[in-house]
Amino acid sequence: MRILYLNPGGMLGGAERVLLSVLKAVRQARPEARLHLWCMEKGALLDRAAALGVDVEHLPASAMLAELGDSQLHVGATGPWWSLTRRLVTSGPALWSLADELRRRIRRLGPDLIHSNAIKSHLLLALAGAGRVGAGRAAVLWHVHDYCGRRRLAGRGLGWAASRARLAVAISASVAGDLERVAPRLPARVIHNAIDVDEFAPHGAIAPLDVLAGLPAVAAGTVRVGLVATFARWKGQPVFLEAAARLVHGGGGAPVRFYIIGAPIYRTANSQFSLEELQALAAARGLTGHVGFVDFQQDPAAAYRALDVVVHASTQPEPFGLTIVEAMACGRAVVATPCGGAAELIRPGCDALAAPPGHPEELARRLEDLIHDDELRRRLGAEAVRTVRERFNAGRLAAEWEDAYRACLFPSRSGTRGRLSRV
Hints:
Elements: E1 2-7, H1 14-29, E2 34-39, H2 44-51, E3 55-58, H3 63-66, H4 78-109, E4 113-116, H5 119-127, E5 139-144, H6 154-161, E6 167-170, H7 173-182, E7 188-190, H8 209-213, E8 223-228, H9 237-249, E9 256-261, H10 275-284, E10 291-294, H11 300-305, E11 309-311, H12 322-329, E12 333-336, E13 353-354, H13 360-371, H14 374-391, H15 397-409, H16 411-414, E14 420-422
Parallel strand pairs: 1-2, 1-4, 2-3, 4-5, 5-6, 6-7, 7-14, 8-9, 8-11, 9-10, 11-12, 12-13
Helix pairs in contact: 1-15, 5-6, 9-13, 12-14
């Protein structure tokens, strides 16, 4: 069997790390399968996939196409609409050229199945004619990592493109429910993301966060609190900084240092904070020296282990929340916003604490509890490890994705034309 994986970016964001876990599982389950990964940008994803024995290829796209996206439209202003419209008109010829090139390459490769890993690749495949009914056509599977219905323009495009896909795999029941509103006729199932519990474990390498942040070493006993995320504007860095300011300036006596770990790794215009913007927000809140900024880490497990508390502060419903599971697997105490797919991951008060999205005062209260209670941190961390090993161990992925691929290739045999199958 020959499987083609298509992903827009080459950097290792959450969706890309999930894709690597799928590639690893499929390689182990089907060593004879020929796996191909095409990305429109170069980056560590291609290198990591090649190390797994995947044939990798760069599908060149212009910077203009890489920056296309409608994630900024939720702000409701007319400016982003006009900006996106101009980019769409200007990039039209390059987009059709890329779709034509993709069509030719797919025809030459002749895959049995195409695993599309992002909204941009779903739409591009439809423009390229992939998934049309006809002999010898590859079956198209959408791996859905985002809330399509919340994307005002892309959601409409996906409703049109859904007829070209045979099956969707959503990363949470919340995402599957959203997809059903956009593409009600597209069969879907849920496969929760999973991680390598040997890589993400309580013991192992520890990142030197203070050195990486350019800060002096802290005193023994200082509690380290960090947010690990891309710089997407909905990931909640301003909420985290406001909560940190409340704790730093509100007294309490316990030594604590905060960290923002990540970078603006995607190229979609207006969708991310810059490092300078976040540093300015921290300075405006009097947090200079209290917050360290650490670049995106290729080994996130070492960064989690360097923290005592990991914060997930997304201000919009989270499709899944890979950071939550990874931090829990490393035995860290986690505070998460239990909205969307994130609500499917934790048991508040048992293996994590919960704080409502967009409420820095509530986040500060949860953090204050953890900063002053070593035993609470230990208890939550120990229970979190058990939760991940039971529910999110990557060992289950091979069987689940084998079944999904079979359902996509042979829908009449699998019975998956029912609306939703949860794995």
